[in-house]
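[job 0412] stage=fold_complex status=start
inputs:
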Amino acid sequence: MKSLVTQSVVAGCALLLGLLVAQGSDAQTIKLGELNSYKQFPAFLEPYRKGMDLAIDEINAAGGVLGRPLEIVSRDDNGNAGDAVRVAEELITREKSVLLMGTFASNVGLAVADLAKQRKVLFLAAEPLTDKIVWENGNRYTFRLRASTYMQTAMLVPEAVRLKKKRWAIVYPNYEYGQAATATFKQQLSASQSGGIEFIEQAVTLGKIEAGPVVQALVDAKPDAIFSSLFGPDLARFVREGQLRGLFKDRPVLNLLGGEPEYLDPLKDEAPEGWYVTGYPWYAIDTPAHKRFRDAYQAKYKDYPRLGSVVGYSTVRAAAAALQKAGSTDTERLVGAMSGLTFESPFGRIMFRAIDHQSTMGAYVGRTAVRDGKGVMVDWHYNDGKDFLPTDDLVRRLRPMR
Amino acid sequence: MSTLSAGSLLAQLLTGLADASSLFVVAAGLTLIFGVTRIVNFAHGSLYMLGAYIAYSATHAFRGGVGFWGAVVVAALATGLFGAAIERLLLKRLYGAPELLQLMATFGVVLIVRDATLSLWGAEDLLGPRAPGLKGAIEVMGRAIPAYDFFLLALGPVVLLALWLVLARTRFGMLVRAATENRVVAGALGVDERALFTAVFALGATLAGLAGALQLPREPANLGMDLGIIAEAFVVTVVGGLGSIPGAFIAALVIGLTKALCVALGTVAIGSFEIAFPKLTLVAEFVVMAIVLSVRPQGFLGAPPAMAPTTAVPDQRRLIVPPGQRALLGAAIALLLAALLPLISDEYTLVLATDVLVFALFASSLQFLMGTGGMASFGHAAYFGLGAYAAAIAVKAGWPMLGALAASPVIALVGALVFGWFCVRLSGVYLAMLTLAFAQIVWSIVFQWNDVTGGSNGLVGVWPAAALAAKPAYYWFALGCAGLALVALGWLGQSAFGYSLRGTRDSPLRAEAIGIDVRATQWRAFAFAGAFAGFAGGLYAFSKGSIAPETLALPRSVDALVMVLLGGLNALAGPLLGAAAFTWLQDTLARATEYWRAGVGVVILVLAIAFPMGIGGAVHRLLATWRR
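[job 0412] stage=fold_complex status=done
writing structure:
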């Protein structure tokens, strides 16, 4: 009697286990493991999530990839590297994702990139702007979609050179992104403009700019022009305080990322006029690729796309294209496919460079204006990312050789 | 920029004063609440943020009518009501519970308010209107100063005066003063404590809401406002002297002006050195606090602490009993089961289990300091982080893994010895705030020292040796290390030293009288706690492969506090239970809902109310009834 009970229990367990295993190996969907700091940077990442979902819907409506539907398994990394590594482990081991993608802040992106190298999993960094993720800390398994701090700064430098100013005030958030933007700007401007240029710097604590004192100090420094890499609430406070204290009167201002709807739109009719910015004039880009994307996005969400939407959408598109090209979900084959991969994004055709795994996604450069009580970009043009990268020699020197 | 003209100095002075003024309004509410209820209200920043958001919506609702100014009043009052509701529904139930449990509960409120704000108002920053009538700027010595700054500048003194009048001239004020001075006696004399607490909490919340609403013309309402202001408000409260409103005013002035001066000085060359003063704004308030508290342990105008009386041994302190044979057997079985885990679980469970072990050790070291030593620390992550960075930097310098791991407790010990020397001279909340100040200072150094610590990026490539690279191997390793460390900590608590330490906690006076060197004992406890936390940090670094400054930032310290309190401050297995519950909760909720943070907050609140002695305390009690 006893042995009968034992036997049936064992048999039951075996059956259950068998079912579980069968379900695991027979899974129809291809899982893309995604992690991001949704609670830390919601203004950027909510549109980003919508962009991802739109791309998934489109791809699956068209029959999926390799005959299988795509699925995103998304996790919040809590904005810190330790938790990011934990959820990435979950996505790899428990969810059996074929690749990792996402992340926002530089430190989180770098931590996940290093994990990707250690665990030999492909990681498509969507948003981190840090140059190090493809250069100093670059590795075989990590690719990055967005135009980096270096590239976007380089896109503004020609505007700065044209201004022919000698005394530049630089204001930046005091962490990797702001420091890198400042260093690149100083180095490139000095290289392309003859004569002594003077730089006055104000480093502000991210999210906690002492707007009044900073603006006052800049006013008193009497610079000829200003280069800023502020964004978010810091930018809004800087703009308000600067307008009140007359900082921007007769002074050209360059602001990295300042034209991104995420940061420009909250300023409404107080958006600064005539600033040189990188950004995303979604209302005015009428290329077929972008129009199709914008129409689909607006039809689905009854809202306009932000830059985050484009990044989310393109990340999924890039992953799908890599899977298609690799013809498999095997990591090594995916890495091979991703090097030199081209795919269609709302910004046109983009390539992941084989040399450093940086994509050639560009950015729009233009000047800010106020139309109908809203901040917009005017006189803009698209800068292809491939034209704003250092020479291959320099890249090879920056990137660790194995 | 190194030369400051009189005009620019004046402009900076005015600006700094305006900032100080609005900071004072926030801090006044905090210090008022603390003075009467002894609650360290973590949610004060959330109330401030709510004030800004409500004012934003109210401005739009009253377009054309009362406009912005009406909205400010509405926002302040609504926030006050909300504060009263928090006190009535939540904190009221916790007054009998161990100190600091209220702090944990208010932390739960922070998490809930943040997510509620996100779902109500959305993610985008909301730029409010400029203040009607004060939209422009006023010229002072050729410099345009925003008119609104003058309004704020006047506001601080007005609020100070109003509060003084209320406290000095009204019956309510008299009761507040009485309760601030001696709550027990006031209660014995028939003051209705409950009504008074609610009223004070509402008044404090109103001030927070007012300050938040008035910030709207300068800063868009955004989701970072809560944590952005809370640390600064704490600092002002403590530097001014807990419970002292004029003290808070002076402290706000000192801190506001220090920051403005740092920015105004710009980059100054001294000899061949260049000091970028604006970068100091990252930590200026904490440097001020560390200096002030080192010189004046009760802040500017705080009452000098009376010689700590003998604490009546509260019920929960009896819970520590030397583990009997049965408990040791239980621990051995648990250890055995833990060692068998890799045989039955998947890899991710091992990742979580490793996290639990690391955090259990980290939380235990904090419990040793807080529970056995009676010294609360709000900056315990500093030692965890020092350990993690020591290990990472050693690995980067080519040390083998075990050597690097051995460096982690050593460096953390050194840090704890230095900071502890200052901290043990203080007591209570002042001590806790000084630990926070040191933690923030360490954090800001790590955050900015790009060449050594990797700055904001941190350090990557801190992987364990090849033999320990597999998840089960590292788990076993961590189990061994953390297990040994936990046993050592437990033994320390039961040793002669542990008993002396308890003596200093329960009655410093008597301890001193029987020949215990109170400060030296506390200092040693501080060092031990730091070293064990550092060891946990080293294990953490190798389990993640990378570390970043958040390893030693305030949220990590708060996590440790929550784990200790969740588990039970005086239950031996408390930190282990707390760490397990916290890790599991975070992992499960994050998968289940987008609003997982609010979920964590709700669970914290429920646990705080249901198990004021923590999970460990509840288990103990259950066992005790069961045995009977």
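[job 0412] summary: Chain A has two domains: 31-148+286-362, 150-281+364-388.
[job 0412] exit 0
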